[in-house]
């Protein structure tokens, strides 16, 4: 993976780090006011209309419903930066409040504006594929 500092790559790393630490206000500060979050792109149980979550208020609500309630760890195996965007290829390891775990594999695309703020996140992953990975917690 290229480690060259690219504005979109830097923003994506910061975003992932904030999500892992559940640092909501810091995470929201990375976004432009008119940003859009599509996670995943298109219609899904997380976005019934498939239009994305537009603006900081909608992105904040998405955070409260989906990021704040589960632990996550990002594992990026490759990253391709060009223009004002970066496409990260990897996995998100998710731990739900009840202890169940899931693996979300995909391509996670971040676009930044001229100020380096996140203008868009478009995550490409398949709902059914992720749901098929859900495992019950190990009994101990």
List keywords for this structure.
140 residues; alpha+beta; Nuclear Transport Factor 2, Chain: A; six-stranded mixed β-sheet; 27% helix; globular
Overview of the structural elements:
This protein is an alpha+beta fold and 140 residues long. The chain has one domain: Nuclear Transport Factor 2, Chain: A, CATH 3.10.450.50. Helix content is 27%, strand content 37%. The chain contains 4 helices and 6 strands, in the order ααββαββββα. A 6-stranded mixed beta sheet has the order 2-1-6-5-4-3.
CATH topology: Nuclear Transport Factor 2, Chain: A
How large is the count of helical segments?
A: 4
Distance between the termini: 37 Å
The share of residues in helices is 25-40%
Q: Name the beta content range.
A: 35-45%
Strand order of the largest sheet: 2-1-6-5-4-3
- Please tell me what the overall shape is: globular
The averaged pLDDT comes out at 94
CATH level-1 class: Alpha Beta
Largest sheet: 6 strands, mixed
From the alpha-carbon coordinates, what is the Rg to the nearest angstrom? 15 Å
Q: Kindly give the count of domains.
A: 1
Total count of strands: 6
Q: Which CATH architecture would you pick?
A: Roll
């Amino acid at each position: 993976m290229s480690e060259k500092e690219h504005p979109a790559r830097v923003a994506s790393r910061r975003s992932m780090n904030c999500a892992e630490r559940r640092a909501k206000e810091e995470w929201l500060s990375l976004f432009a006011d008119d940003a859009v979050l599509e996670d995943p792109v298109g219609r899904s149980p997380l976005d019934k209309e498939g239009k994305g979550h537009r603006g900081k208020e909608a992105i904040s609500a998405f955070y409260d419903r989906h990021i704040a309630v589960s632990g996550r760890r990002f594992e990026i195996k490759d990253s391709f930066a060009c223009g004002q965007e970066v496409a990260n290829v990897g996995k998100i390891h998710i731990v739900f409040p009840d202890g169940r775990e899931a693996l979300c594999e995909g391509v996670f695309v971040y676009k930044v504006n001229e100020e380096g703020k996140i203008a868009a996140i478009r995550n490409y992953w398949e709902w059914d594929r992720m749901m098929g990975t859900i495992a019950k917690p190990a009994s101990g």
